[in-house]
Structures are given as C-alpha cells and as structure tokens.
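Renewal narrative, Specific Aim 1. Our central claim is that a sequence can be written position by position from structural information alone. The example that follows is taken directly from our test logs and has not been curated for this report. It begins with the structure tokens describing the chain, in the order in which they were read.
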C-alpha cells in the first residue's frame, strides 16, 4: 500500500512510503533514511547497526510518517 502526502505550504504531492518500504529499510539501512532526507534517523540506524537489523524495519512506517508530519506534510 503506497502512502502519498501533500505539503500544506505549496500543495506539492509525493509518495512518502512505497509498498516495500520495510524491505528497503532492512536491506539498505542508513542509506534508506539518507535518501528520505532523515539524517538523524540515518545516524541512529548506523550507530545501532540498523536497530539490530529488526527494530527499524518493523517501526519504519511510524518513523517515516511522524517525520514527514512534523515537516508539514499531510497524509492523503
């Protein structure tokens, strides 16, 4: 299930979570968060070896949704 969001400031719309987001987080670890622009989560993922390889992929949906919500993106 793909999740799209719209930025309230200018109405820009983009996909913030794809169908296979947990798999990509598991495989690429910190690089996944760097690609999303989530630098603090990338650092935490790197320091904890990707949340001990289980934690971050399991909670990836809530981590990404909360990050984009705080930045002003509204889930469609």
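The sequence written for that structure reads:
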């Amino acid at each position: 299930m793909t999740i799209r969001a719209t930025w309230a400031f200018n109405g820009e719309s983009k996909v913030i979570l794809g169908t296979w987001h947990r798999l990509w987080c598991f495989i690429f670890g910190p690089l996944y968060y760097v690609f999303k622009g989530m630098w603090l989560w990338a650092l935490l993922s790197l320091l904890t070896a990707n949340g001990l390889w289980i934690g971050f992929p399991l909670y990836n949906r809530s981590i990404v949704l909360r990050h984009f919500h705080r930045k002003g993106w509204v889930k469609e």
